[in-house]
Structures are given as structure tokens and as C-alpha cells.
Queue: 3 jobs
Job 1
Amino acid sequence: MVESRKLMLPAGVARIAPVLLTLVIFIAVWEGAIALFDIPPFVLPHVADVAGRFVTDAGALSDALAATLAESIGGFALGVIAGVAIAVLMTFAPFIERMLLPVLVAINSVPIVGYVPLTLAWFGIGATSKVALVVLATGFVVLINTLHGLKQADAGAIDLLRSFGASRIAILYRLQMPVALPSLVTAIRVAIPRSMIVAIVAEMLGAYQGVGRIIFESTQQMDYLAVWAAVLSASLASVVLYGVAVWLDKRLVWWQ
């Protein structure tokens, strides 16, 4: 009797294979739609044409992407720091949450693009205005998730630590922050791609450099291959950043 043997793939190949399969299907659907519906190139160009333009414009795209990444990562880092700090402050002083949270909700209920003209007027057309917008967009996400996580700590465990003489800082460090880590990491996963989106949209409305500026100028010049190449560069960078967030998730929230 012959035993059936399962095909065992290396761990790295097993993780990459679904991604590659999805990419192949996506490209096949893309090219199939062009052929089936006779879509003109300015609406949906061929994948090979986009890839070729991506290689041709690699120098300009790398400079623009470096500027956009600096804005998005800088704003993201400041947003995480501000969000966590405000969440901790609200945990220590609940009246601050009652005073400040409704204002922050009202501010973030407006689409971020609505604040672009204001930040350009306040901080200028340079990188500072983009960083400020990214802080606004990502900080609120981090604040809400971290505040929720801090409140998930068991009240009985908090009382037990207090009975042993633990200070508020010790309770925060040893109990509440570990409990809040899953929520914080989830916020980081959401905030990373959002930081790229906000930076690019702000650059499209006013910037000296960046991926958004390339997209805006290429659209005005009807150079749609350049637009697709810029979108591809931003997408690849976002995937890498998201991969970093997943890595952080596995390192920080190792027990899940």
C-alpha cells in the first residue's frame, strides 16, 4: 500500500507563495480586462508599460519617494508618541478625557483633505505642513486604540497591585501597557498606510517635491504612465512599511 505524501515547502516559500499567486491573478485579470473590453491605454495601460516606465523614471521616483517617506514616517512617529502620551494622560486624569476627547472627535470628523489649505497657510508649502497633517491623521487612531487598550486592564488586578504598594506609574508599566499593546499595534497597522495616503494627498495640493507632486504634474501633462509609475512606487513602499508593522506585532505582542 503506497502512502500519500504531502508536498512540504520551506517556510519562506510557503509564506511568499500565496502573495505571488495573488499577484499573478491580479495581473491576469488586469491584462484580461484590457483585452476583453478594449480599454484605452490612458485609462488602463498594460502592466509591462507601467513597469517599463517605473524603471525609466527610477531616479526621479526614488528622490520623490524619499521625500514622501520622510514626511509620512516623521509624522507617523510623532503621531504615535502624541497619541500614546495623550491616552496615558487621559487614563491618569479622566476629566481630561471628558474635556478633550469630544474636541478631538470633532476635529477628526472632517476629512483630512479639508485641513490641507489651512496647514499650507500655517506651515508653508514645505514638508512641515505634510508632517502636521500626518500627525493629525495618525495620532487620533493611536489615541483611540491605546485608550481602549489601557481600559481593558482588569480592575481586580489593579487593586491587587495597589494593595502591594505599587505606584500609578508602576501599574501603568507592568499591567496596563502590556494589556494595551495589542490595541496599540493594531493602531500602528492602520496608521502606517494612512500616513502615506495623507502625505501624498497633501503633496498633490501643494509641495516642492514628493510622489504626490509627481502625480499632480503628470496628470496635468496627461502623462498617465508616469502617474501609474508613481502610484506603483508608493504602493511598494507602503507594503514594506506594513511588513515592518507586522514584524513589530510579532515582536511586541509575542504571546498572541
Job 2
Amino acid sequence: MFEGEKIQVEGPKYIKKKSELALPSYASGSSVSTALAAGLGSLCLFLARMANESDRQAERFCERSTMLAVFREMQVSPKDKVIAPSQLFANFGRIFYGTDPRPVGLDKFEFSYFEEKIGAGLTTRRARSRERATGATGGTV
């Protein structure tokens, strides 16, 4: 779900040669997409804690099905599985200082927003494997 090809990265300047300092560096691979997913997931968990008064509701974001629903909310389309965080974060408002009213867009991280989306289109790996093995009619393929 996360892009992992030719992602521009920065590292310590002392590693590069002087001739390479002006050139951008790129990284690719599953380790890049995993780091992006972990960072974005962490941000979503933080926002869920801010948005939900109940600790129980905030903890539900740690469940696989809830986080998948959050990530699916960021997909451009059901067919294109690549995540575009702007899909979910586009309407976030001003900076939150703790005494101001809630930031605009934080309501998207209330558990009730995702409650009906959890399970919609989500199936377990085992169920998907069973569907592939038996076909749509339930008979053996």
C-alpha cells in the first residue's frame, strides 16, 4: 500500500562526497515503504488519542482492522492500492496548541468515523484464501 520506489531521502552530509552534496539521494525497497507505513501509523495513533475521549476507543486504532480502515481512507481509489495521505489529511486546519478548540479534521480520527468502515471490504487472509480455493460458488476449483 505504501510507495517504496525512488523515495528522496536525506542522510548525514559527511557521508557524501563534496561533488554529491547538491544531488538528491534516493532509496527504494520494502524497508523504505515499511518505514513510511510505521511513521504514518504512529501519527494516526497519536491523532486517535487526541480525538477520542475514551481510552478504549483510542486503543481500537491499534487493531489491524482499524488501521487498515484508516489506510484505506487514504487510498485514491479502490483499484489503486497506493496510499495518498492527502486524501485523509487534506482538511486539517490550523496548528493545535492545547488550549484552542480542536483542530479542524480531527473528527476523522474519532473511532465512530471508522466503526462502519471496519470490516467493509475487509476479510481475513484465511477467508480470502478459502474464496480463491473454492471459487465464488463454493465448489472446489
Job 3
Amino acid sequence: MRIFNPDNHAKSDQHKRLYAICEVAYSAIDFSAALLFIVGSVLFFDESTTYIATWLFLVGSVLFGMRPAVKLYREIGYLRLGDYDDIARQ
């Protein structure tokens, strides 16, 4: 099994389940981060809410930083389910 191979998600039912879980997590992170950035942007229009807007931007940025972590988690999960001999040959 090759790492970051788009066909890995279809190797077994366990692979499909892991892929689905990670896709839901990825989508939830994207939605949450976008929502925080939108609300933070609106809050920047009033000087009295700039402090909370800055925090929303920071949390949104952290969420966007979690996106590659979810993909890495998925790939490590595939490795745990898959064939280590293919990786050794790479």
C-alpha cells in the first residue's frame, strides 16, 4: 500500500469506514473554521468587539491547521490496516 494513494479508501470495509470518519471530521473542521472567520470578520467592524474577533481568527486558524493532521491520521490508520511490505518497497 502506498501512502497518500487515493485508492486506499476502497481496499476494505475498514478502510471505507476510516475514510468516511475522516471526511466528516475534515468537513466539520472546514465548516467551523469558515464560520469563525466570518463571525470574526463581522466583529471587526466594531472596535469594541475587536478582541473577541481576534480570538475567533486565532481559533479558526488553529482549525485550519488541523486539516493536514486529519489526513495524516487517516493515512496512519490505513497503514495500520494495510500491507507493510508495499511501503518497505517504496
